[in-house]
Amino acid sequence: MSTKPASVGRSTARALPSQTPARRTSKKPRPQAVRSADTRRRLVDAAVACLSRYGYSATTVSVVARQAKVSRGAMTHQYPAKSDLMVAVVEAVYEADGEQYRRSVEAIPSREWMRELPTIMWDVISRPSGIAVMEIMLASRSDRELADKLRSVQRGIDVHAHQWVIERLESAGLKDRPDGDAVHRLFVAAIRGLALEGLFRRDKVGIEKSVAVLKEIICHLYPGIGFPEKP
Amino acid sequence: MSTKPASVGRSTARALPSQTPARRTSKKPRPQAVRSADTRRRLVDAAVACLSRYGYSATTVSVVARQAKVSRGAMTHQYPAKSDLMVAVVEAVYEADGEQYRRSVEAIPSREWMRELPTIMWDVISRPSGIAVMEIMLASRSDRELADKLRSVQRGIDVHAHQWVIERLESAGLKDRPDGDAVHRLFVAAIRGLALEGLFRRDKVGIEKSVAVLKEIICHLYPGIGFPEKP
DNA sequence: TACAAAACAGAACGTACAACTTGTTTATTT
DNA sequence: AAATAAACAAGTTGTACGTTCTGTTTTGTA
């Protein structure tokens, strides 16, 4: 019989080691805009770290708050629901990724950047932030609320990425292939897959060899850019 | 204060719609071996379906049991812990995958199978069972118990796969590249990545185009197999 | 037929989690 | 300086989950 709910003990539920949030000593008042931005940034950074290291379901709000040295209350104030934090992560990562792409390409002699594209993509996608976004995407499959909030963010991101490559190609005097979108999607997928495998192998060298194969392949697919010289 | 555990209601916890397990009417006794195998097979099949559709954390033991039309008791008898079921899934999938590879290659004229390898790999890896295994691997990152149980299963699987390709190559009179392992890893990664993307796009055609690019690439990397003729 | 063991059924338990709630401190505005 | 609002802190609650437990039915064996 159990129509009456049993008295369930939760006596050990509050076992967090009483992390003391970093206490300020300075007397100068910090503007609210700064405080908010700082709290949010720390939460997003901590979330990326947890997601990339432990995966989505192990990334609980409590763990993120502790890692970020932010109280649960502050966290709830900035991101009322867990999904809000995850959306913030995706937004921040995409922004940072775009910046990183731009800087990487600018740092390379004009005609050679295409050959280095696989390495550039690897550097961006295999980062913890890349893994974090992948985890969030996977999790959104079983979380309608998260999926809905992500929909608006995700819209148009991949389109821009390929468009950007096309412009770069043209400014180098090269024509894109008719199936250029398929090639681009394939490269992203390949590097995502390699990054995934990297989560389970400490063998970095083997994966770097696969990225090198990608560089050879891109020279086959776009003969105009020439083969990479052996150093 | 809360040293005394609060009386927490769980009155709505057993809200499952009272799924009646399929009741037998036949009088002939079924051997235990058959009953066990049937229960296990149904649980594994249901787990694969849930994993591929909803992801790991949404694949709860209750959901799997209901989907499999198996009682929770029967489930616990066969697979005491959730991780045991997941290990069974991985074992079953790998076995089925190997069988599928063998059959696919045998169904193709000897010198052409290499050109079709991307399609063959796509057919195997992008199946629900392939997605399910990926989900389990990802989940094992934050579940030491699952990771430990998987370690013994996973050992030596990828090695066998590449070894198998090498043998096939040699029996066709072709020599593998010195970086053949990197190529193989790259192809698996690419198809995994494409399969992942397929979870979020209904655009099957676009992904098929990417697989077609893979076929072109493999002909570049192994010139001996010739280019695929346009039909 | 008797008895043991496997397979099954489902309720009960403890816990971890996200969300909610209440109270306190710090910054901004008037 | 007073009032208001933002930021923060932490305790509380409901619930979903994996596991464990107790009891029942079916199959195998002596």
UniProtKB/TrEMBL annotation, chains A, B:
Transmembrane segments: none
Domain HTH tetR-type: 37-97
Pfam families assigned to the protein according to its UniProt record, in alphabetical order: TetR_N (PF00440)
InterPro entries cross-referenced by the UniProt entry: Homeodomain-like_sf (IPR009057), HTH-type_TetR-like_transc_reg (IPR050109), HTH_TetR (IPR001647)
GO molecular function: DNA-binding transcription factor activity; transcription cis-regulatory region binding
Keyword list, A-Z: DNA-binding
Chain residue ranges for the region called Disordered: 1-39
Annotated region of DNA binding: 60-79
Keyword DNA-binding (UniProt): yes
Keyword DNA-binding set for record: yes
This protein's name: TetR/AcrR family transcriptional regulator
Upper taxonomic lineage: Bacteria, Pseudomonadati, Pseudomonadota, Gammaproteobacteria, Nevskiales
